[in-house]
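User: Reviewer 2 asked us to show a designed sequence for the structure in our supplementary figure. I'm pasting the structure tokens here. Could you produce the per-position amino acids so we can include them in the response letter?
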């Protein structure tokens, strides 16, 4: 007993715990070797361990004795190569992606399967700053009830984003945005004036670009979406829904897409005039709809979700006609 105490003084607490676990395992294995009447399953059930674990302990004990029971099980982790690490950092710097979107991009476009937590560890190891430090980093005070329409065109959320003009002596530009509530498919246009005429022209552009019939437009209570705009929608056979005043969360999808524009487009691009901005915004719109995987769509792009929904609707209509 005194020798055990002296031995314990030379060990750290962690090493002492490992030694105690190894001695307990040795006692169980000696029971296996001395008691030939009981099977592995019966002995494992007696001591509260699985048969596979007991078999592994016995194998290590036969091969290396008591030292084999001291060895720690080291989980096999997939090592992140320098090339993969460089890809992660480039996606963060150039595209402004978060760790979950980076993991999705690597799997979708590069065929590299890596967990989002591993991506997070790589970003943290390289001291990459947060994407943004705003109120959005804080946990929500109450649970958020998410919703999504069932079919394309059922509701289109529309809003306006102010864009700074690089020529400071000139007025700012206005990005009109329309996003489908169901598929997140977007249409973006730039105007020099934020008024009802621009809103009506934008609606015409949206109807040309969106492949499904639009049944409802949802907007805030801005002056550009006032009575004349509502009358224009009525003539097109489209219902106009205003959200409650001072509740931008009710137009959350278009508001969130504007934050994506700021993080992944405007913060990475510079333009000289409106023609340059229009060209670059068209490329960004195409990238957003056809190439950028969307987290809310389970990794699909808006165009993929749109095609899937449209084909499903056509199939259901065909089945309904045959039933009638």
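Assistant: Here is a per-position design you can include in the supplement:
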């Amino acid at each position: 007993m005194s020798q055990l105490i002296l031995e314990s003084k030379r060990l750290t607490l962690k090493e002492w715990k490992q030694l105690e676990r190894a001695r307990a395992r040795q006692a169980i294995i000696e029971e296996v070797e001395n008691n030939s009447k009981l099977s592995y399953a019966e002995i494992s059930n007696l001591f509260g361990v699985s048969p596979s674990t007991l078999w592994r302990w016995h194998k290590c004990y036969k091969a290396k004795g008591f030292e084999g029971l001291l060895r720690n099980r080291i989980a096999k982790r997939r090592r992140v190569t320098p090339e993969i690490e460089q890809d992660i950092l480039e996606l963060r710097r150039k595209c402004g992606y978060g760790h979950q979107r980076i993991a999705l991009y690597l799997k979708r476009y590069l065929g590299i399967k890596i967990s989002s937590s591993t991506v997070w560890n790589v970003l943290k190891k390289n001291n990459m700053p947060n994407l943004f430090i705003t109120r959005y980093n804080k946990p929500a005070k109450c649970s958020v009830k998410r919703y999504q329409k069932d079919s394309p065109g059922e509701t289109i959320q529309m809003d306006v984003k102010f864009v700074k003009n690089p020529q400071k002596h000139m007025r700012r530009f206005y990005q009109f945005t329309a996003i489908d509530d169901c598929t997140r498919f977007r249409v973006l246009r730039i105007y020099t004036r934020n008024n009802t005429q621009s809103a009506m022209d934008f609606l015409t552009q949206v109807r040309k670009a969106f492949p499904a019939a639009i049944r409802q437009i949802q907007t805030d209570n801005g002056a550009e979406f006032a009575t004349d705009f509502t009358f224009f929608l009525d003539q097109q056979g489209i219902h106009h829904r205003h959200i409650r005043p001072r509740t931008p969360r009710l137009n959350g999808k278009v508001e969130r897409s504007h934050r994506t524009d700021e993080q992944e487009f405007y913060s990475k691009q510079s333009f000289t005039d409106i023609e340059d901005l229009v060209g670059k915004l068209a490329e960004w719109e195409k990238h957003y709809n056809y190439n950028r995987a969307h987290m809310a769509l389970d990794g699909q792009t808006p165009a993929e979700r749109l095609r899937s929904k449209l084909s499903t609707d056509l199939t259901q209509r065909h089945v309904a006609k045959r039933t009638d």
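For the response letter, you might also mention the following. Strands lie at 156-163, 173-180, 186-191, 216-219, 239-242. Residues 13-34 form the longest helix (22 residues).
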